[in-house]
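Thread title: Can someone regenerate the structure for this chain?

I was given the following input by a collaborator and told the matching C-alpha cells would be attached. They weren't. Posting the sequence so someone can regenerate them.
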Amino acid sequence: MHELSLAMSVREIVEEAAQQNGATKVNRVNLAVGEFSSVSIDALEFAMEVVKKDSVFENAAIVIRSERTILECAACGSNTVMADYVFVCGKCSSGAVRIVSGDRMYVESIDIENGGE
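Best answer:
Regenerated them for you:
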C-alpha cells in the first residue's frame, strides 16, 4: 500500500508547516487526489487516520477532493476531461494530447491555529 508512504509524506508537510507557523493545532488538511494518480482515496483515508495519531493534527479533519484528469490537445488547443482513461481529445478526437492535471496528489491547504490567536 503506497498510500501509507504518501500519508507519511503528508504528515511531514503538515508538521513542518505547523512548526514554521508556530501552530499549536491543525484543524483541517485539504488534499487533492487526481483520478489518474494511482492513489486509492479509501486507502489514503485509512492511512491518514493511522499517521495523524500523536501529531499536531491528530484531531484534524482530513478532506480529500478528487481531481478530474484534464487533457490538452496539441491539434486544436482544447482542454477536455479524459473519459474512460482514453487518451483522445474530447473535442476533435485527436490522439495528440497530454495530461495537464489530475495525475498527481498534493496538499491543497492546511488550516492551523497559532497559540496567540
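The longest helix spans residues 2-20.
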